[in-house]
Write a structure and sequence with these properties.
single chain, D-Maltodextrin-Binding Protein, domain 2, disordered N terminus
């Protein structure tokens, strides 16, 4: 899926004019005399650069990014006399990670690529794929709370796009009409589900066509458990000493959702889920706020809230996930590093980036962002202010990918809980071996 955006340039030759009007008596294409003797000023033809940009999982934002890239091209031409064109790819979330790794390993390197800040930056940095951006103006603009997510060894190596506080989404109107408030325990969630069922309202959107969506259960359940009752789980898994059997209770909320969701989940992808949620097909969706733009495009009057997902009956385990997901990096082996860095600096431009991030419905990440936070951000922040938040757990990307496929099969009754546990344990051990 490639789209080339080309900025056409007219080269103006100063000091020489071409008279093209036959009425003036000058022959067509005949050069007129210089306006002033001795004027030999000329304009240097612009340098041409094509940037290869790989934006995995961001196809829903293609319009916003392409528009912004066009603005950058005009700026780069004006400021540096460089004519920039773009070869942009927007592969889906399910396939993007593997495609990108293959490209980087085989030398087919994009100039700029997206990656998950928490899950992928450490491994990509260790592999030597990332350019140090610490000396760039953008590094000083990233807010202090966000900068650690895009840094390794005190080096800024990416520009944050999506700064998140997320859990699950709920339909505020349905909750209000039925006297419901977001539950703080699993037992309370069961009561909410029962009341919705009694009112003939489907509790949850299920959209499992794309594996990355059921995968969202993994960071939400493990994140809550690791930061409350199973604090050593990730450490033990990284040392080949743990097992998902220790956190088997993660299936309790998964089973509750699966048993009380919309029909035909394998026919529904992210876009379909956004449309169903925005039109009131169900009261809740295990999904992040990154879908705000897609939801509001369907129904701009829709009001949704964000709440932490209960995973057991310990209210302290019910927390929102604080993370930076999509980030943009410059490839260490990229052919156009100077222009690539110019583009990432423009991503955090003091003025224009406000419109970009606001159009994407992303949270502010720059000290110079002045737009007002969205209502769902303010709601999620209330949990963080109470200490009910955790940093997105660092889980190998291979494990997250496997969890999505395994939970699809689990819903379809092709895998048991024990099968899922074995698959995730093996994948984590294999990832450990690769990353040693």
């Amino acid at each position: 899926m490639k789209k080339v955006l080309t900025t056409m340039v007219a080269v103006l030759m100063l000091g020489t004019t071409v008279a093209c009007s036959k009425d003036s008596g000058t022959k067509e294409n005949e050069s007129a005399a210089p306006a002033a003797s001795g004027d030999t000023t000329t304009v240097t033809a612009p340098k041409k650069v094509e940037l290869k940009i790989f934006l995995g999982g961001l196809d829903r934002f293609r319009e916003q990014f392409d528009k912004y890239f066009t603005q950058f091209a005009a700026k780069e031409l004006k400021d540096k006399n460089i004519q920039v064109t773009f070869n942009s790819e927007y592969p889906g979330s399910d396939t993007a990670p593997q495609i990108l790794k293959t490209r980087l390993a085989t030398g087919d390197v994009p100039d700029i690529f997206s990656l998950h800040a928490v899950n992928e930056i450490p491994a990509f940095y260790k592999a030597g794929y990332l350019t140090d951006l610490s000396s760039q103006p953008l590094a000083g603009k990233i807010t202090d709370a966000i900068k650690p997510f895009v840094s390794v060894d005190n080096k800024v190596v990416a520009v944050p796009m999506e700064s998140l506080l997320w859990g699950y989404l709920y339909n505020k109107q349905i909750f209000k009409d039925n006297g419901l408030t977001p539950p703080t325990t699993l037992t309370e969630m069961k009561a909410v589900v029962q009341k919705l069922n009694d009112k003939k309202i489907t509790p949850f959107i299920l959209s499992y066509k794309e594996a990355w969506i059921p995968q969202l259960f993994l960071p939400l359940t493990i994140g809550g458990l690791v930061n409350s009752t199973h604090k050593d789980f990730v450490t033990n898994m990284n040392a080949d000493k743990g097992s998902f059997a220790e956190v088997k209770e993660m299936f309790d909320i998964i089973d509750l959702v699966n048993a009380n969701g919309t029909e035909l989940p394998f026919d529904k992808g992210n876009d379909d889920g956004s449309a169903d949620f925005a039109t009131g097909k169900a009261a809740m969706w295990i999904q992040g706020t990154w879908n705000a733009d897609a939801i509001l495009k369907i129904n701009d009057k829709f009001e949704f809230g964000v709440a932490p997902l209960p995973i057991n009956d310990d209210p302290k385990s019910t927390m929102v996930n604080a993370s930076v997901s999509t980030s943009l990096a410059v490839a260490a082996e990229g052919k156009n590093k100077e222009v690539s860095q110019d583009l990432l600096n423009y991503i955090l431009d003091d003025q224009d980036s406000n419109d970009l991030y606001q159009s994407l419905k992303f949270n502010p990440v720059s000290k110079n962002h002045t737009y007002q936070a969205y209502p769902w951000v303010e709601e999620a922040t209330t949990y963080a202010n109470k200490g009910l938040s955790y940093q997105d757990p660092v889980i190998p990307q291979a494990v997250k990918d496997e969890s999505g496929k395994a939970l699809q099969s689990y819903y379809d009754k092709k895998m048991s809980k024990e099968d899922v546990i074995k698959a995730l344990d093996k994948t984590w051990k294999d990832a450990n071996a690769v990353n040693k």
